[in-house]
Amino acid sequence: MTDSQRDNAAPPSSGLSARLSASVAAIAVAQLVLLIATSSRYGYHRDEMYFIVAGSHPALGYPDQPPLVPLICWAMNHLAPGSLLVLRLPSALMAAATTVLAGLVAREIGGRARAQVIAASCAAVSGFALATGHFVTTTTFDLLSTTAVCWMLIRAVMRHSGPSLLAAGVLAGVGFEAKPQVAFVAVIAVAMLGFVGPRWPFHSLWMAAGVGAALVLAAPYAVWQAAHGWPQLTVAANIGGSAEGGRAGFLPFQLVMVSPVLIPVWIAGLAVPFRRTSLRGLRFVPLLYGVLALAYLLGNGKAYYLASMYPALLGMGALPIAEWTTRSRRTVRTILLSAGVALSLVVSAFIALPLLPVTKLQGSAVMALNPDQGETVGWPRFIRTVSTAWNSIPAAERGHTVIFTENYGEAGAIDLLGGAHGLPRAYSGHNGFTEWGQPSSNATAALLLGYQNPADAAPYFGDCATVATIDNGVGLNNDEQGLLVMLCHPTSSWATLWPQLRHYN
Q1: Are residues 391 and 454 in the same domain?
Q2: Torsion, Cα of 17, 202, 171, 137 (10° steps)
Q3: Does 169 lie in the same domain as 245?
């Protein structure tokens, strides 16, 4: 048989006769309940406040992100102002949907109820799923979109389905409007299909339609970026490296992304297309994972960029793992796997969810492995401190004073929470805030936030006087703790300083 005949032969039998197990839905619902139950502990994350403020400035794009996540956050906050539960509900739903997709991937390759439950269970208790499902982050949208694209491509190969190729393109285009990384994954996935086959999709009008749909849906943000000089590329370059140890920590971090005890499941997902003739057409998936890992590693990308690949790998790996549990010593093997899932749930929930009292966070394993938890603590006290500092300025001087912050988190907090404390809007030269105006020429003083000391504020600001110090009240060493609130004067006109104050990261 020639390569062309092999590519166009009928696809092997997949799980088409198997229904999606009701247990998969039950697992997803349980995960959703856990995420909702813990959604209102601690407080806002700096990114969430920034998203809400960005959404109040609707645009086709922002320097650091597409418009979809900010618009959703603004809408949820508008629906229920101040409700963390409502704000974070989309993220919880997306995490649960990703769990279902892991089960669907297992079904697609022939997995019946046992394999589907294994896939869904492993995805639901994964550290990355709970961490990104707890609060709003673009990674949550990436996780769902990339998993959905992989599912559709797997479905296309296993069923020889043209419409699935179109669906994959639509999902990639929509995902791009939440996080551009989705498009990068989709492009590499198509390249891997072309490299190892099957190649029939490249002769299909469905593939052309899928590519066209993706391009049309991605066009608005791409056009915005082009018109603004591609600031997203600057952002990407400036955030290279990671809190997970940079290049040195990239590979070790992959071993804890899901759970150390569940590594065999996704490793089995990488191996199964090379071990089974019936799944040979899915070799593009492990190759996709390998190419992405190499690209992120060489590009000094963050270790969690690979998180979006794990649900699909868990779905694929669940098939051989399910068979392993039905061989000799079936009961023992099932108990071992169940214990691994249960242990992963306990550890992942402890690290990813706000379960510890805030007074216990400092020096904990939670902060060492998931410092984002610390960034959800202390914002109400931050606002009260800034409000006290603002009101300490003589009334006659306040009319010529603005609040200027070093980063979007502080500015977002002022804009979202400060109004109730009598604070004016904030200005910042960071990311999206660069698009929303600079202080007027009448502003001769600035209440500065986010700078370590007067030397850190120079040469843009001088004649600084410390008015207050940020203290979250629980001794937690997060990004804001110990920063000074200073009353300073710009060293030149705002129009002159503004290009120098703008920064993307």
Answers
A1: yes
A2: 110
A3: yes
